[in-house]
Design goal:
Layout lengths: L1 E2 L20 E2 L2 E2 H10 L5 E6 L3 H10 L6 E6 L6 H8 L1 H4 L4 E6 L2 E3 L3 H11 L3 E6 L5 E5 L5 E6 L5 E3 L7 E12 L14 H8 L5 E5 L5 E3 L5 H8 L2
Parallel strand pairs: 1-4, 1-6, 4-5, 8-13
Antiparallel strand pairs: 2-3, 6-12, 7-14, 8-12, 9-10, 9-12, 10-11
Helix pairs in contact: 3-6
Length: 235
């Protein structure tokens, strides 16, 4: 599932008239780039959620025949639900498979999904997601076994601890995650919420792991000035 429903407020003025997922990096939209990224790992059935200028995304998908993938739209035009709420809304479209992957449309990365999946299976985790040791205003906290234990805002000092341990270390979230389908029966939140809330509420009683691929490419194309940096990283 690619999360493409956001309002893109940091990406104005483009998002005054377009969804951020259709912003171009070297002539290709962020959405197309992420669909092609998944294709590298033979993932060709993709759910895309839509809200902000939803018709533009739907039209682009239809015009380009899904860029070679089968795209199913999860319609959030009535209310944008954030990543966690968007995932729950798309439950019926995702839970037929044992595992599924989510990623954010405005993130570009070269995280090796095959290695993430192998790590996830070998550790028998409920959720595994990519992390790197880059600087970030908000980070997840892990123990020495890569288990998620908490979250910290480096700007405000706020902490949320799920497992209280000494020696926790920060890692930055890369917005690519693999889930076992039983997660749908475990998510306590409802309505509009972030996956961060879900991770932290489940971490104490379920194995949630960070897959460290530090040194790989990653960029949050969250602001217009990020495009030039993204174009340097991704042809």
């Amino acid at each position: 599932m690619i999360f493409a429903a956001g309002l893109g407020t940091r990406f104005k003025p483009w998002t005054d008239h377009h969804p951020k997922a259709l912003a171009l990096v070297n002539g290709k939209s962020l959405l197309q780039r992420n669909i092609e990224y998944l294709q590298q790992y033979n993932i060709r059935e993709v759910v895309v959620n839509v809200h902000h200028f939803a018709n533009q995304i739907i039209d682009a998908v239809e015009k380009n025949n899904g860029w070679g993938s089968k795209i199913t739209i999860s319609d959030e035009r009535e209310e944008v639900l954030e990543t966690g709420g968007g995932l729950l809304k798309a439950r019926a479209l995702l839970e037929s498979d044992e595992q599924f992957i989510t990623l954010n449309a405005d993130i570009l990365t070269d995280l090796p999904i095959d290695k993430l999946a192998a790590f996830h299976h070998s550790c028998n985790a409920l959720i595994s997601f990519g992390v790197t040791n880059r600087k970030s205003s908000r980070c997840f906290l892990f123990d020495d076994d890569n288990r998620l234990c908490g979250w910290e805002n480096n700007q405000t000092g706020e902490k949320k601890i799920s497992i209280d341990k000494k020696g926790l270390h920060q890692m930055a979230y890369s917005c690519v995650a693999i889930f076992n389908r039983e997660v749908f029966d475990l998510i306590p939140q409802r309505g509009k919420f972030s996956l961060t809330d879900t991770y932290l509420s489940l971490a104490a009683n379920h194995l949630i792991l960070g897959y460290n691929y530090s040194g790989g490419k990653f960029i949050d194309v969250g602001k217009p000035e990020s495009v030039a940096l993204a174009e340097q990283l991704f042809d």
